[in-house]
Amino acid sequence: MCSYTIGVPDGGERGIRVECDDHGEWEEFQPGYRTVTFYCEGCGLELEVDLRDPADWRDLGERC
Ligand SMILES: [Zn+2]
User: Fold this and answer.
1) What are the structural domain ranges in the chain?
2) What is the pLDDT of residues 7-60, one digit of tens each?
3) Rounded to an integer, what distance in angstroms lies between the CA atom of residue 51 and that of residue 64?
4) What does the radius of gyration of the chain's CA atoms come to, in whole angstroms?
5) Distance in Å, CA 15 to ligand 1 centroid
6) What SS3 string covers 1-47?
7) How far is the CA of 41 from the centre of ligand 1 (A)?
8) CA 21 to centroid of ligand 1, rounded, Å
9) N or C: which end of the chain has fewer CB within 10 A?
10) Ligand 1 centre and the CA of 22: distance in Å?
11) C-alpha 32 to ligand 1 mean position (Å)
């Protein structure tokens, strides 16, 4: 199983960045979406992230 990092890049706009730790694939999403779909070619999997629940992904990022 792959692990993913979800966080907010420093500076710039308040985009949300999703990265696959295993393959280094990452994609940055602009705010305003309810959910985004991140696809990693290495995993061959799609990950759905709910941006409306900031507490959820912020938790993930800060625990790393
Ligand atoms: Zn991957």
Assistant:
1) 4-63
2) 887 766 677 888 999 999 999 988 778 889 999 999 998 988 887 765 555 555
3) 19
4) 11
5) 20
6) CCCEEEECCCCCCCCEEEEECCCCCEEEECCCCCEEEEEECCCCEEE
7) 6
8) 7
9) N
10) 5
11) 25
Going by C-beta distance under 8 Å and a sequence separation of 6 or more, which residues neighbour residue 16? Answer: 6, 7, 8, 28, 29, 31, 36, 49, 51, 57
Give how far Cα 14 sits from Cα of 2, 21, 28, 29, Å. Answer: 25, 21, 10, 9
> What separation in Å is there between the alpha carbon of 10 and the centre of ligand 1?
23
pTM exceeds 0.90 for this model: no
